[in-house]
Amino acid sequence: MKVDQSIMRWQGFNIDVLVKIFQSLDSIELTSSVAHVCRAWRTAACDPIHWKVFDLSKLESIFIKTPIQPYVYVAEQSDKFLTRLLKISLNLSQGNIRSLIFHFNLYLRDDQLAYIAERCPQLRRLVMPAWNRITKNTICEAIRTWKDLESLTMPSLANTSYLLEEISKNCNNFRELKIMGPCHVSFADSMVAFLPRLKILSLRCSVLLKEALLIILEGLKNLEVLNISHCLLIESWNVDGPLVPANLNDESILNAASRLREFLTCTKEPCTLCQRVIEDEGLMRWYKYEEGLWKQDEVASLSL
Amino acid sequence: MITLRSSDGETFDIDEVVAVEMQTIKHMMEDGCAESVIPVLNVTGKILAKVIDFCKKHVESAKAEELKAWDANFIKVNQATLYDLIMAANYLDCKSLLDLTCQTVADMIKGKSPEEIRGIFNIKNDFTPEEEEEIRRANQWAFE
């Protein structure tokens, strides 16, 4: 009798306890084996508590940069591995994922994003810094699925009006945006046009045109928090020579920023991050620096 | 002083401050059971003794590093005892012991394949053939 009992023990375990044990495992560990052990373990692995935040930020694509669009080539094996991981985990998540986090070197393929969007209808936060292989159609379709989207971390893009328009039409609770890269004047104009209710904006660690900054400060009437820490503020683009820096303590800027609840700038002297942004000429090359450095943000809700 | 009685009749006298580490006992005390012996129905004497040791140590010692080292040694038990400790920690609602035991099991699971995990814990694969097929399809490298 005793021997039989011991066989059933770990199998017929209290589900709540199993869920607690699995909480110590990360997203990838959860998908790779525990869900395939037996039915009870699979049930515990599907508990929504594990899937609120799906953090894949430890995963990078195997890729090389190329001189022509989409400027990256991803190894087939790398794509396949991710596809498999997505299939298993999205199946277990049962539509409960609220936050999705990707590494800046994870180059999602267009069909992978489409697959994800369909299976994460309750998404509230997306951190996706690499859009090279994503088409306009797919991202727009995804935005249409994500009615509850509140927060987006994205790369710098030249033309964004289509994207922000889609967000304004579909995502009533959208409040927070982080751009990992320079904010062009056109991007600033689009934000003012389509995201009037934006509350939080982070543009940290990039080159920033004074004109764009003023457009944001004067145009986004509901903005409460603006983070331009470690930004290289410039007067204008100067193709032939060095960038012409602008003064952050300019009256027009300070006046416009005074109504913000939080205007975050870097006051450390000297600052390693500011130095690096200058060295990288305003286009922060995160891969050169400490792992995980890119995840930081002076705004708590944007920090990973 | 509080007296606890295990499922197999062993009694343990413990200080109140140690007893309240176990939320279940704490509630029973608040409900007025403290005068007589408190029966701990689901836990044997052998395991209850260990749980009490754990609670005593965690009440006495404040230094995090010392506790960590002690915990690491405390948890070096066989699988059957580990299982019993988890069940006891859950029933007695002793958070720090539950955290320790669950983390230990999680560490045993990490990096292992399903077959390896079944082997370690003596678990039977009880998926139906249909479920197995579904899992096999999900494990493929491409979208269908």
How do the helices and strands line up, and which of them pair or pack?
The complex is a heterodimer of chains A (304) and B (144).
Chain A: H1 2-9, H2 15-22, H3 27-32, H4 39-45, H5 48-51, E1 53-56, E2 63-65, E3 72-74, H6 76-93, E4 99-102, H7 110-119, E5 125-127, H8 136-145, E6 151-155, H9 161-170, E7 176-180, H10 185-194, E8 200-202, E9 207-209, H11 210-219, E10 225-227, E11 232-236, E12 244-245, H12 251-257, E13 262-264, H13 272-279
Parallel strand pairs in A: 1-4, 4-5, 5-6, 6-7, 7-8, 8-10, 9-11, 10-13
Antiparallel strand pairs in A: 2-3, 11-12
Helix pairs in contact in A: 2-4, 6-7, 7-8, 8-9, 9-10, 10-11, 11-12
Chain B: E1 2-5, E2 11-14, H1 16-19, H2 23-33, E3 38-39, H3 45-60, H4 64-74, H5 79-92, H6 95-109, H7 114-121, H8 129-138
Parallel strand pairs in B: 1-3
Antiparallel strand pairs in B: 1-2
Shape of chain B: elongated
Average pLDDT figure of chain A: 91
- Biggest sheet of chain A, open or closed, and with what strands and sense? 8 strands, parallel
Q: Classify the helix fraction of chain A into a percent range.
A: 25-40%
Cα separation of the termini of chain B: 66 Å
Number of strands of chain B: 3
Strand order of the largest sheet of chain B: 2-1-3
Helical run tally of chain B:
8
Rg result of chain B: 20 Å
Taking all residues together, what is the mean pLDDT of chain B?
89
Query: What kind of sheet is the major sheet of chain B?
Result: 3 strands, mixed
Structural class by sheet pairing and helices of chain A: alpha/beta
By helix and strand content of chain B, what is the structural category? mainly alpha
* Strand percentage of chain B: 5-15%
Question: Got a strand count of chain A?
Answer: 13
